[in-house]
Design a protein that fits this description.
This protein is about 40% helix and about 20% strand. By secondary structure, it is of the alpha/beta class. It has two domains: about 5-120 and about 270-280, Quinolinate phosphoribosyl transferase, N-terminal domain (Aldehyde Oxidoreductase, domain 3, Alpha-Beta Complex), CATH 3.90.1170.20; about 155-265, TIM Barrel (Alpha-Beta Barrel). The strands form three sheets. The protein has a six-stranded parallel β-sheet with strand order 6-11-10-9-8-7. Strands 3-5-1-12 form a four-stranded antiparallel β-sheet, covered by helices on one side. Helix 9 (about 250-255) links the parallel strand 10 and strand 11. Helix 1 (about 10-25) crosses helix 2, helix 5 (about 170-175) crosses helix 6 and helix 7 (about 205-210) packs parallel to helix 8. The longest helix is centred in the middle third of the chain and has 31 residues, at about 95-125. The mean pLDDT is about 95.
Length: about 280
């Protein structure tokens, strides 16, 4: 599946921000009313730790929706590595708007940058190999598209977006259909042209998936030896994706087996928000 690009996410970003502001500001920011409405201010946002940045468009949209008079001046680009204490962006405009938008803007930026930072770490581990690291559907509810965009900022790639854009036939689907061949044939009838991927747990099931004409075969927790064998047996008839039990310690060895893809839930699931700080200047 193709990677998400920012140009396709305008409506999604606007919706993400509307929901975030509705839950945070609600009927109005009580504390911001302590500041005179006409008071103007500036602010600076820095990162307290090294990171890879993602989420600029979400920050811009937060302040656009709160008050379009706020100007956002960026010092970094999405996908850029930054060191601790780096100035990320500055703001100027009505003080109330800067304060009301602070938390939502930083929530987006710290979360998406966390995804990009983790992805860059894993992408660096397989640098020099042709393998593509893929994300999964293990995302925060309501932020899937945002997180999957952040994955691309970190140098990794998108798997299917959801259950609607490709088949991923797993053990329970196979059992319900009566076998791998039957499941693949049914998928071709239901949605011709959609990618069909089959998860297999051994080399015998790999042979069945290849004979059935699967586009992609997911090798679920196969040994390194079996992965090498799978690559040799497949000989380009389908793409191979390694999945399950993969971490920073074994990632490079798996990439070197010759599989086409490695999917990792940890790219979006096991993240720690980047530590950001905003300081207001009245």
């Amino acid at each position: 599946m193709p990677d998400l690009i920012l140009a396709d996410l305008s409506a999604e970003i606007a919706a993400n921000v509307r929901r975030a502001l509705a839950e945070d500001i609600g009927s109005g920011d009580l504390t911001a009313q302590l500041i005179p409405e006409e008071r103007l201010a500036r602010a600076r946002v820095i990162t307290r730790e090294a990171a890879v940045i993602a989420g600029r468009a979400w920050v811009d949209e937060v302040f656009r929706q709160i008050d379009p008079r706020v100007a956002v001046h960026w010092e970094v680009a999405d996908g850029e590595r930054v060191d601790a204490d780096k100035l990320l962006f500055s703001l100027e405009g009505p003080a109330r708007a800067l304060l009301s938008g602070e938390r939502s803007a930083l929530n987006f930026l710290q979360t998406l940058s966390a995804v990009a930072t983790r992805c860059r770490h894993y992408a660096d581990l397989v640098e020099g190999t042709p393998v593509r690291l893929l994300d999964t559907r293990k995302t925060l509810p309501g932020l899937r598209m945002a997180q999957k965009y952040a994955v691309t900022c970190g140098g990794c790639h998108n798997h299917r977006i959801g259950l609607f854009d490709a088949f991923l036939i797993k053990e329970n689907h196979i059992a319900a259909c009566g076998g791998i061949a039957e499941a693949v044939a049914a998928a071709r009838r239901i949605a011709p042209g959609k990618p069909v991927e089959v998860e297999v747990e051994d080399l015998e099931e790999l042979d069945q998936a290849l004979s059935a004409g699967a586009d992609i075969v997911m090798l679920d927790e196969l040994s390194l030896e079996d992965m090498y064998t799978a690559v040799r047996l497949t000989a380009g008839r389908a793409k191979l994706e390694a999945s399950g039990g993969i971490n920073g310690d074994n990632l490079r060895r798996i990439a070197e087996t010759g599989v086409d893809y490695i999917s990792l839930g940890t790219l979006t699931k096991d993240i720690k928000a980047v530590d950001l700080s905003m300081r207001l200047q009245l």
